[in-house]
Description:
Layout lengths: L4 H6 L4 H9 L5 H10 L3 H11 L2 H13 L2 H7 L5 H14 L3 H17 L4 H18 L3 H19 L6 H23 L1
Amino acid sequence: MNITTQWLQDKSACINGVIWFKKQSESNSMMILQLLIKQNKLDWANWLIVRLMNYKQAVSYAIYSAEQVIHIFERKHPNDNRPRAAINAAKLCLKNPTKKNRADAYTATVNAYDAAAYTGAASDAAFAANASVAAACYDDFYVATDVAADSAVDAYAYAAAYYDYFNAAREQMRIKILKHGIILLKARG
């Protein structure tokens, strides 16, 4: 898919992103994603990748993001299965997005959100699970998918042993999630 200034504006891209886009010559979405990653504009790459996805890709991306960090929550709170239940509800919705499955997923997202009341990395991991199921049960899945990826990145970074590694850990997880998103986009054909 080719990206245009109008497409970015229609998707409510930030003004700095539109300015950046106008200054470069690439329009192919995959090449733009690679360029954003190379220039370490990882949050912008996440924003773009989500808006290029269809429902199934976006929910898969959100689930993948949450699964990267759910162990952080489960290690800290081994008897609280609400975030894991939310991820499973998102998977069920992805497989069969019936009205009942979406309603059950909505309940799971509320429960995972409540689990996110903990502090630190565990909270972000629970919030990633919450957002993954929100992506599955809402028609406007873009924002929830953004949040799932962002929360997973933050959970991973907060779980880094020392603050000095926070930014490096955040970048490492963001790139891992983005690469998975690119694989999902390429699978579409």
